[in-house]
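Example record for the data management plan.
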Amino acid sequence: MKHDLAFTLIGKLLQWSDARFAQEFRELQLMVDHKYDSYQGFQPATRFHVALLNWLSQFPTLPQRQAAYKFIKDRLIFVSQREMHHLVSMLMPIVERLERTRVAGELGIPLFQTALESAAIARLDLLHRRTLYVGLSDGARIDVFRRYNEGKVSNEQVVAFSEMSDEKWVDLQDELRKSLARHGLSHEGPQFEVVCLVDDFSGSGSSLLRCKDGEWKGKVFKFHKANADRLGKELAPQCLLHIHHHLASEQARQQIEADLKRFANEFPEFEYVPTFSYVLSGDIVIRDSDPDVDLVNLLTSWYDPKIEDEHTGPDIWYGYKKCGLPLVLEHNTPNNSVALLWAGSEEDGTPQMKPLFARRKRHSSNG
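Corresponding structural encoding:
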């Protein structure tokens, strides 16, 4: 379907006048070309204007369709690939700031002098080379990070996934030993002082770390469990786990910082520091008290419990953990976003929910 025809049908659904149609067409087409058509969850040859037409068509009344369109136009946050890559590029300045802060503390000097004193420069070089970067998911874009920092970070300092075999650790340590020797630092131990665990997005913080019934789970706990015995071997004693997200909600930031403090008290073998390239303001969150009453009514009424599974839990019209995010990432839509954006129900659903930005599920409920 050509976009002109699709937009004409959208205008009829929303009962726009000719003047309103001309204005909305220009504004929406700009966002379609700039962002929405690039969503990787669309099927081949599918475009946003068709998805929007189908999505709006599911609502039986004009006020519902108007509320839905207003939500997309005024509240939707779509993070494009270029924007996400910019967030990835911000990781290295954060790493360097942490390194300088650490060295300044070790040497008892002001931060600015770490760029002037030879002892600080040498220590920074060693610390930089004894840092390992590990992706926590396939969305971490660790490959993009490496390309942005070519010449600063070697391939042997970057690992795509956190589950590493003993052989992989031996290889990493061997490569570190060679790198130190090349830079006249062979007298220094080939141990990683910092492991930077990198992920793309956190909406609630629960996938990173959570404690339920006194039992810890999550990516940080798994890494600790698998690698705590490497301290003093491949990892330096009191190794720092630097946990970085390119993007996070304010709810996730608060939860991660609180959980890491509790976790550090129980598992003090590592030091823990969380950082974020960007934290979404809590002002964007949609909840029952939102001033847009029509939107709240739409989100809570146009909802099919059949979209729930063992991973999401019940009542997720505001998304997983009720995060209430109006967020779409170019490669996928987080389940922390409001369900109206990403959820699709079975044909016998009442009502049958149709997604605008269909989500690729990380977990399967089958089997």
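Summary line stored alongside the record: DSSP finds 13 helices and nine strands in the chain.
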